[in-house]
Design goal:
The chain is of the alpha/beta class. The protein contains eleven helices and five strands; from the N terminus they run βαβαβαααβαβααααα.
């Protein structure tokens, strides 16, 4: 029984291509939807499903986190209800464990083919899409993987030496568009240029991210906002001021001296 954890980004897309090229049978492909993914990720899912179907592979099954009452709970709803930021803003990965890993494991726990494998005393094989430049992530997980009684983890991109360039090349060779970065639209790991893009292309989502930040503000002590030691609202406000000054200097034919910080 082979299960693929699909994230909707470059690495997991390339991994499925690699698996097809190497004739590795895939039984189940799971995508955990936090309810807050970037628009380009949602747009890519039907594109990828089209490729999978054309190559005789199963379509992606979307799983979601539900609360104890069986109601859908998105990460955004959870943050607003609790008056907190995503766990990553505090230096933890609890949000990923709860809204990504847990829904996939819950699905497998109730999926009869997986249950049959475990009943035989065997392990379900789970493929993880870390590229060759992320070996440290596998190294960090190896202790937990060895202790896992239900799953045997495979990291094929690391083993075959596919880095980001090889992954992108494989995707393009298949005639697929290269997927955008997979993350929530208010992920604390987003870089400044990604926040700018969100502000200009999806102002509604940016405003929702700021609503989460403002809602959590009364409860923040050491953390200042979604940037951990800085707030998104302050960055964008300052960024707009800088652009205004830059335009003024341009009109006066003078250099403004602005520096983007390499992001």
């Amino acid at each position: 029984m082979v299960v693929v954890a699909y994230g909707g980004g470059v690495d997991s897309t390339a991994m499925l291509i690699w698996m097809h090229q190497n004739q590795i049978p895939v039984d189940l492909i799971l995508f955990a939807d936090t309810g807050c993914e970037q628009p380009h990720t949602y747009e890519y899912l039907p594109i990828m499903n089209g490729w999978l179907t054309a190559h005789g592979m199963p379509e992606i099954i979307v799983v979601e986190y539900v609360d104890r009452n069986g109601d859908r709970l998105t990460l955004e709803q959870e943050c607003l209800r609790s008056g907190t930021l995503p766990a990553l803003a505090y230096g933890h990965k609890k949000c990923s464990l709860k809204h990504k890993i847990e829904p996939q494991e819950k699905f497998c726990n109730n999926y009869q083919p997986c249950r049959d494998v475990w009943a035989r005393g065997e392990k379900v094989v789970k493929y993880i899409g870390y590229d060759a430049g992320e070996g440290r992530r596998r190294d960090h997980a190896i202790v937990y993987d060895m202790q896992d009684q239900k799953y045997r983890k495979e990291y094929p991109l690391i083993d075959c030496g596919w880095g980001r360039e090889e992954c992108v090349a494989a995707i393009k060779q298949e005639g697929l568009p290269v997927p955008g970065k997979s993350s929530c639209f208010f992920c604390p790991a987003m870089k400044r240029h990604e926040i700018r893009t969100l502000y200009h292309r999806h102002r509604d989502l940016f405003d929702r991210a700021i609503a989460i930040e403002n809602n959590a503000k009364p409860n923040l002590i050491s953390v200042k906002g979604l940037g951990r030691d800085w707030a998104w609202r302050d960055f964008v406000s300052g960024d707009m001021d800088q652009i205004a000054w830059c335009e003024l200097f341009h009109e006066l034919n003078m250099p403004c001296g602005c520096f983007d910080g390499g992001e």
